[in-house]
């Protein structure tokens, strides 16, 4: 069971508002309520950690927004952020096995970012939202003289949520307490134990409200709906001929059949349509441009590898797929038994939850080249998000 620890114990001194910044309003709604609402669709319960003097006001705000129920608790914070997280961990119910730790001042967090953290925990035990560094970073000495310039490609700006199995983050806190270690974030406690920490894709809109300028920026993001963020639609279509002596591969699944698809690569017509949809939505051409059939390096290559390349290419241009729908048109063989694995392969490659990927198959009632079993065609539609 998933729980959220929502940290709301800051004083807001840098905000200059005279009260806790999570009680400030954005478009008529308190910051704490916007942050809490982001988790309602994905988590089973929540622990809000707050200063004693703010607990009543936070509870009143949550109640007014319909966010207060039997699985939401408000507890007192500690002297440090680390202490506050520990206080939250202490009151998690026995059935809470996984936890998302989030700063209440990051009230623009989106569900996709949260789900990516959750998916990473399911696979690795940790999932930390992060974004690539866009500025050159300089390491300096006490006199502000540069001593090193780290490679920006290896740097990530860490956000929240930071997600863990409850057992792991509790163990990390106990180890830190025993050694007197004070981390800069939750992940650093796991790192201090010498254990790996998995980062996952965050969102540049997931800003932390710290100064009055941040409030202005958040208001602008909420007001400027076309940039929340920009979405694009892509459509792809492909056809391959059926021949003897070739494997039939669709969405990375090898399907038993007497015929296979002819092509320079493995001729996975479904993935080819999907890649063309992705490239078309981002105005990056088509698969013929990126993987020409005159290039021997693509001879017989798995289209799953090509799809991974296209996903990476989109990331380089600050795009990601939010959902995909693929239709395969084939008279034979029956594809229904293989569709679950097809969906899983595509979801893994696109780094999406399974419920964001659909694959379906149909026939043409023996009409046209598909009906005559001369070939198989595929169509794909996808939504692309700017990041």
Question: Could you name the key traits of this structure?
Answer:
2 domains; 12 helices; 60s Ribosomal Protein L30, Chain: A; seven-stranded mixed beta sheet; Spore Coat Polysaccharide Biosynthesis Protein SpsA, Chain A; elongated; alpha/beta
Written description of the protein model:
The chain has 387 residues and is of the alpha/beta class. The protein folds into 2 domains: 226 residues, Spore Coat Polysaccharide Biosynthesis Protein SpsA, Chain A (Alpha-Beta Complex), CATH 3.90.550.10; 156 residues, 60s Ribosomal Protein L30, Chain: A, CATH 3.30.1330. It has 12 helices and 18 strands. Strands 5-4-1-6-10-7-11 form a 7-stranded mixed beta sheet, sandwiched between helices. Strands 15-12-18-16-17 form a 5-stranded mixed beta sheet. Strand 4, helix 2 and strand 5 form a beta-alpha-beta unit. Helix 5 packs across helix 6, helix 8 runs parallel beside helix 10 and helix 10 runs parallel beside helix 11. The longest helix is centred in the N-terminal third of the chain and has 14 residues. It is elongated. The mean pLDDT is 93.
Rounded to an integer in angstroms, the radius of gyration calculated over CA atoms is 25 Å
Q: What is the 3D form?
A: elongated
Estimated helix fraction: 25-40%
CATH class placement of the largest domain: Alpha Beta
Distance from N terminus to C terminus (CA atoms, Å) equals 30 Å
CATH H-level name of the largest domain... which superfamily?
Spore Coat Polysaccharide Biosynthesis Protein SpsA, Chain A
In CATH, the architecture of the largest domain is Alpha-Beta Complex
Largest sheet: 7 strands, mixed
